Amino acid sequence: MIFRNFAVLESYNTADAYVIGVGHLADRLAGGGPIRHAWPRDDRALSFDERVEMQTLLRARGFDPEKLDGRIGPLTINAVRAYQKAHGLVPDGYPSPGFLAFLRRTPEPRCARVSPRPCGPRRPGPRSARAPRRGAELALGGRTEPLCRRTDRWLVSRPRA
């Protein structure tokens, strides 16, 4: 379980081991008990290329982290959390090698949701170039068909005629 202090400590140093260590030290000084579980030694951080791949796969599956920069910031964490929740996983937002393997195994939908954020009033400013515009079309063998239509909160594929 993570509390607000985790984010405060992480703003100083983003290494999980640092945040857990300093947080645990504070708990012990305040009279708390020892850590109850072993450190997950087989867990590792994703490499830069794996992080970019994960962001690319999330975007392709409709959970847009907005930037494909290999940095795990709040937008990527929110996209990971939304994807985990949509697929019945624990929505912890933690981009582990196991999560990347799960992401690789799930198929890419033909037309997916644009963003993990709820649909509703958009922020003012230019429309995202990544979001399909109304009337966007896909050329298929000389004919065109609409890519997607918006229904309530999801973008869904139109059946071919």
Summarize the structure.
The chain has 161 residues and is mainly α.
Structure in words:
- The protein has 161 residues and is mostly helical.
- Helix content is 36%, strand content 9%.
- It is built from five helices and four strands, in the order H-H-H-H-H-E-E-E-E.
- It has helices spanning 4-12, 16-29, 48-60, 74-86, 97-105; strands at 137-140, 143-146, 149-151, 154-156.
- It has a two-stranded antiparallel sheet. A two-stranded antiparallel sheet has the order 3-4.
- A hairpin with a 2-residue loop joins strand 3 (149-151) and strand 4.
- The chain is elongated, with a radius of gyration of 20 Å.
- It starts with a helix and ends in a 5-residue tail after the last strand.
- Residues 112-122 and 132-161 have low confidence and may be disordered.
Write out key terms for the chains shown.
161 residues; mainly alpha; two-stranded antiparallel ribbon; two-stranded antiparallel sheet; 36% helix; 9% strand; elongated
Sheet with most strands: 2 strands, antiparallel
Biggest sheet: strand arrangement:
1-2
CA-CA gap between termini: 50 Å
Principal-axes shape call: elongated
Q: How many alpha or pi helices?
A: 5
Protein topology:
Elements: H1 4-12, H2 16-29, H3 48-60, H4 74-86, H5 97-105, E1 137-140, E2 143-146, E3 149-151, E4 154-156
